[in-house]
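Fold this sequence, please.
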Amino acid sequence: MESHPLDFEKPIFELQRRLQDLKDHSDEHDVDLDSAVEAIEAKIRETRREVYSNLSAWQRVQIARHVQRPFALDYIERCFTNWIELRGDRLLVATGRRPRVEGIGLETVGVEADAHGIRVDEHLRAGERLWAIGDVNGIWPLTHVGEYEADVVAANIAGDTHPANYEAVPRVTYTDPQAVAVGALEAPYSATAPVSEVPKTATYTHAYAESNGFLTLLSDGERLTGAYALGPEAGEWMQQATLAIRAHVPLEVLSDTIQPFPSFSGIYDAAVMALRMEIADKPRPATPMYSQMATLEG
């Protein structure tokens, strides 16, 4: 299949055309062929660097959709991975979103929007008797956040004083395995437990015994402040951390919680214990069995 350049690729294709023409008609040119080829190839490399280092998100999507651009994909890969080769079966392109606030009559109610959306206060009020929920306020463009904001606004309209709280917003990427995060991504203390060491996860499938999944818990020293995980249906078992962050559940209570067995939720036993050992500046248990036996007093 003939490869046709995208608009921003045309300078590269023109140089490649000149290079090929030079090679095909070398006997017709009174030049040092090796030096000319080297010069054009150097110019191609320089042009690629200029073009592919400054691509917009949409241009990257266009490149990704044209599988006949191996040189482009290769260069983008090198730019984003510091020259480390990466290979996979699928490419996930997250281009982001922006609120659609143009042409909906905001100016008629005295409301102004910027690139991030409609500005609101902590009660999601955008103006007198006017609220903005969901993607248009640009706070968290997630369906479940929009549903939560609808409840907040309904309560405020009904006369309650109900500020929105975004301390524990779960974010799930529905890949296989699922990737999920909630709350903060950095904290003074953190600890990680691998899915492969959760007792009896092989009950579901033996593949989990070799899983690269994990749960990382973050803490300020007294309670959970964030968590992120990779694993089968991680969006489901992350809700335990979501509730703990939102309700400010002490770590002592979390470690005193009974987890069902066998289940992926059992990973919290190991993760919470490792986190408490980290905070206490004591060696982490080496295995799940030691984790169950270890105590902060020991």
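The chain has three domains: 7-81, 106-157, 170-293. The two ends are 69 Å apart (CA to CA).
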